[in-house]
Design brief:
25% of the residues are buried. The chain has helices at 2-14, 38-41, 83-95, 116-124, 130-133, 142-150, 159-162; strands at 24-25, 44-50, 53-59, 65-67, 72-74, 98-101, 104-107, 110-113. It is globular, with a radius of gyration of 19 Å. 34% of the residues lie in helices and 20% in strands. The chain has 7 helices and 8 strands. The longest helix is centred in the N-terminal third of the chain and has 13 residues, at 2-14. It has a domain at 40-142. The strands form 2 sheets. The chain has a 5-stranded antiparallel beta sheet with strand order 1-8-4-3-2, with helices on one face. Strands 5-7-6 form a 3-stranded antiparallel beta sheet. It has 166 residues and is an alpha+beta fold.
Length: 166
């Protein structure tokens, strides 16, 4: 199995995909002498709050989903939590990314998730649809924001494509 994983990492890396990339650490601070990464500077900030949890999530221009350091995940889980999320939460606790403090699990570093729903499930401790859970400060959901991002009209200026009439 390890050989298969190594070959898969090599293949997707050669294709320019970062499927196996793990990011942790504080993305908001840069080492001295370096300029901030432009993708972090133009990130969009979402929030997801409820009883026992309060998370902040960045979506970078390249589409990376990052839960910010200091976000609080619910300490107790519900019966609806997916088994994969239970395992991920356990891994995050073991690695020190999630640290139990008072009545919550606190993110000690920024952490990249594969999807908005997996980020929401880890934060809430239950099954969650991240597309409707994460919200912008103006109240729009991630799904509404994403729809707005994809709704940009594409101007057609080539007469050959339009047959001369627009």
């Amino acid at each position: 199995m390890e050989e298969f994983i190594d070959q898969t990492k090599t293949l997707v890396g050669a294709l320019g995909c970062d499927l196996f990339k793990v990011v942790s650490g504080d993305i908001s601070s840069q080492p001295k002498g370096t300029s901030p990464a432009p993708s972090w500077a133009e990130s969009v900030l979402f929030e997801f709050r409820g009883q026992g949890f309060a998370g902040q999530m960045l979506v970078t221009p390249s589409g990376e989903i990052v839960v910010k350091k200091g976000s609080k995940a619910r300490l107790k889980t519900t019966p609806t939590i997916p088994k994969g999320t239970v395992a991920l939460r356990a891994d995050l606790v073991t690695s020190g990314i999630l640290l139990e403090q008072q009545d919550a699990l606190v993110f000690t570093a920024d952490y990249m998730f594969p999807s908005v729903s997996s980020a929401a499930a880890v934060v809430t401790g239950a099954s969650a649809n991240g597309r409707v859970s994460w919200r912008l400060p103006d109240g729009r959901t991630y799904a509404e924001w994403e729809e707005g991002q994809n709704a940009s009209p594409i101007p057609i200026e080539d007469e050959e494509l339009t047959g001369g009439a627009i």
